[in-house]
Amino acid sequence: MSQQPLAPRPLSDGEKKLREKFHEHIAAQSDLMDKLSERLLTVEMAIPGLYATVLKLVRGDKAAMAVNTALYLTFACWLGALALTLAALTPRKWLVDPTILRQDPKQFAAGLGLEDYFDRSALYKRRLVTGSSVLFFLGVCCAVFTWR
Predict the structure, then answer these.
(1) 95: alpha, beta or left, given left = phi > 0 and alpha = psi -120 to 50?
(2) Which site from 1, 5, 36, 89 is most exposed, i.e. has the minimal number of CB atoms within 10 Å?
(3) What is the pLDDT of residues 9-66, one digit of tens each?
(4) CA atoms 75, 39, 24, 92: torsion sign
(5) Within 10 Å of residue 97's Cβ, how many Cβ atoms?
């Protein structure tokens, strides 16, 4: 068996398309997080309004409720979730070196590579959206305990 390296061959059309789609997928991750954040923001704005409306409908003109720890926790969680979602939607400046595709992780302070930028940006947004979702769910759970 010969130890000769294989001769390079040009990429087929299918291989070129797969590489193109792979790179599009990497670049689109951050956009997907933005779309998810926009939908989450809509829900986070609607639920507290619905909560107040249901309170008014159920309790009538004398819609009042006891202010307790659960009520404070409910709105604190909802406010925290809203803040995290807005942070995910707010553009962030990243130091990127466009001449590098992938940077050594030890040298991120000098600038991210292009792939690193898309990966880190999506990861940053995903963490914020995940935290926002958890806080919002906790707020809904706390809202259950405000009805006495």
Answers:
(1) beta
(2) 1
(3) 787 888 878 888 887 888 788 888 889 999 999 999 998 888 877 777 776 666 666 6
(4) negative
(5) 15
Question: Measured between alpha carbons, how far is 24 from 35 in angstroms, rounded to an integer?
Answer: 16
Other Cβ atoms closer than 10 A to 130: 12
Residue type at 102 in one-letter notation: R
Helix (H, G, I), strand (E, B) or coil at 96: strand
Provide the angle, in degrees to the nearest 10, between the axes of the packed helices 69-89 and 114-144: 160
DSSP per position, 24-86: HHHHHHHHHHHHHHHHHHHHHHHHHHHHHHHHHHHHGGG------HHHHHHHHHHHHHHHHHH
- pLDDT tens per residue across span 104-143: 778 777 888 888 888 889 999 999 999 999 999 999 998 8
Whether 41 and 82 have beta carbons less than 8 Å apart is answered as yes
Instruction: State the burial class of residue 40 (Cβ atoms within 10 Å of its Cβ: 0-12, 13-18, 19+).
Output: buried
What is the pLDDT at residue 76? 94
Q: What is the pLDDT of residue 107?
A: 78
